[in-house]
């Protein structure tokens, strides 16, 4: 009989996955629950919550486990997780990904930073912080981020059997995608073996932030702006689409550019910045200045459209977008 390391007042061990559409968190949650039920005999359930279902939009997957003699009748989102799996580090810019964690919770992040650096960046007071370069592993193995994250989650949740997860992966993929089975298994194994983690005790005299229910309105009667003004609509210049990038981004090589505007034609978010300048004969012409990465979600359509390789795809590096961003003029006027 498998013993859960800890449970809440209802007898559940709870996991929440924070991701964006397209990284496979929904499927990962289902496979994780199945491995717990079929593999080690627990009762388990998995379900997801998301908005417009658009690739790049925030997604949450919720998993609950309990002993086999107990029924799971709760279908509410996981708000006080024992484990949080963050599939996309940049989500922390706009989403409170660590909401509800306790002082002994485990936070797993898809990142190349150290646990110590993430503790500082995410303002974590205590708990176990784990890191795995899921994007890097997935790119090298030509597979998906979710398999690497699942491997790391199984390493952190010692009550789960990784061999049972491998059986689930094989069963889920071998009929429709037989060519993906071995890359998925290799990606899972690397996530399991390459995750690093460190535990941090709660500093003396400090307390974890108070828990706020998920359904508590951010803009209530006492906090909303005068007149109920929407201060950050979807079409606002303040909108930051960088959280939608799933690990890859376009790089602009000005020396190769012929200013044909093929990139601008296919870009869904008007990321390219142009300026009118005289050409060699003194005639006015629009010249591409660069990319406003605040609005770039990494779809890479521009890379596919560019006829002269002036745009190439590359792994996103920390700080690159901020250093190479060319702001639109309306942003300069505001800031």
Q: What's this entry about, in short?
A:
The chain has 335 residues and is α/β, with parallel strands linked by helices.
Overview of this protein structure:
By secondary structure, the chain is α/β, with parallel strands linked by helices. It folds into two domains: 188 residues, Pyruvate-ferredoxin oxidoreductase, PFOR, domain III (Pyruvate-ferredoxin Oxidoreductase, domain 3, 3-Layer(aba) Sandwich); 93 residues, Alpha-Beta Plaits (2-Layer Sandwich). The protein is built from ten helices and eleven strands. The strands form three sheets. It has a seven-stranded mixed sheet with strand order 2-3-1-4-5-6-7, with helices on both faces. A two-stranded antiparallel ribbon has the order 8-11. It has a two-stranded antiparallel ribbon with strand order 9-10. The chain starts with 12 loop residues before the first strand and ends with a helix. 33% of the residues are buried. The model has no long low-confidence stretch (mean pLDDT 88).
Q: How is the topology of this model organized?
A:
Blueprint: E1 13-20, H1 25-40, E2 43-50, E3 58-66, E4 83-86, E5 106-110, H2 115-121, E6 127-132, H3 134-141, H4 145-156, H5 162-173, H6 181-194, E7 196-200, E8 248-252, H7 262-266, E9 272-278, E10 284-291, H8 301-305, E11 311-315, H9 320-324, H10 329-334
Parallel strand pairs: 1-4, 4-5, 5-6
Antiparallel strand pairs: 1-3, 2-3, 6-7, 8-11, 9-10
Helix pairs in contact: 1-4, 1-5, 3-4, 3-6, 4-6, 5-6
């Amino acid at each position: 009989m498998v013993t859960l390391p800890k449970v809440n007042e209802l007898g559940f061990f709870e996991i929440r996955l924070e991701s964006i559409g397209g990284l496979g968190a929904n499927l990962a949650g289902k496979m994780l629950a199945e491995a717990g039920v079929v593999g080690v005999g627990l009762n388990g359930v998995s379900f997801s919550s998301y908005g417009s279902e658009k690739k790049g939009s925030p997604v949450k997957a919720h998993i609950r486990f309990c002993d086999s003699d107990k029924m799971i009748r709760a279908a509410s989102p996981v708000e006080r997780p024992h484990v949080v799996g963050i599939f996309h580090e940049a989500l922390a810019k706009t989403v409170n990904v660590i909401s509800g964690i306790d002082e002994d919770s485990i936070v797993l992040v898809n990142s190349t930073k150290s646990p110590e650096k993430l503790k500082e960046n995410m303002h974590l007071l205590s708990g176990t912080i784990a890191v795995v370069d899921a994007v890097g592993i997935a790119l090298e193995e030509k597979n998906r981020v979710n398999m690497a994250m699942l491997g790391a989650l199984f390493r952190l949740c010692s009550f789960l059997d990784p061999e049972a997860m491998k059986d689930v992966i094989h069963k889920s993929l071998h009929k429709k995608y037989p060519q993906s089975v071995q890359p998925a298994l290799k990606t899972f194994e690397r996530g399991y073996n390459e995750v690093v983690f460190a535990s941090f005790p709660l500093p003396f005299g400090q307390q974890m932030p108070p828990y706020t229910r998920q359904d508590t309105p951010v803009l209530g009667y006492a906090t909303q702006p005068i007149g109920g003004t929407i201060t950050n609509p979807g079409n606002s210049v303040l909108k930051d689409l960088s959280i939608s990038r799933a690990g890859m981004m376009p790089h602009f090589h000005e020396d190769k550019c012929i200013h044909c505007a093929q990139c601008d034609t296919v870009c869904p978010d008007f990321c390219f910045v142009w300026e009118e300048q005289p050409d060699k004969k003194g005639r006015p012409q629009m010249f591409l200045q660069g990319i406003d990465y605040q609005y770039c979600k990494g779809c890479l359509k521009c890379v596919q459209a560019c006829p002269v390789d002036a745009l190439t795809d590359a792994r996103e590096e920390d700080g690159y977008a901020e250093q190479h961003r060319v702001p639109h003029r309306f942003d300069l006027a505001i800031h």
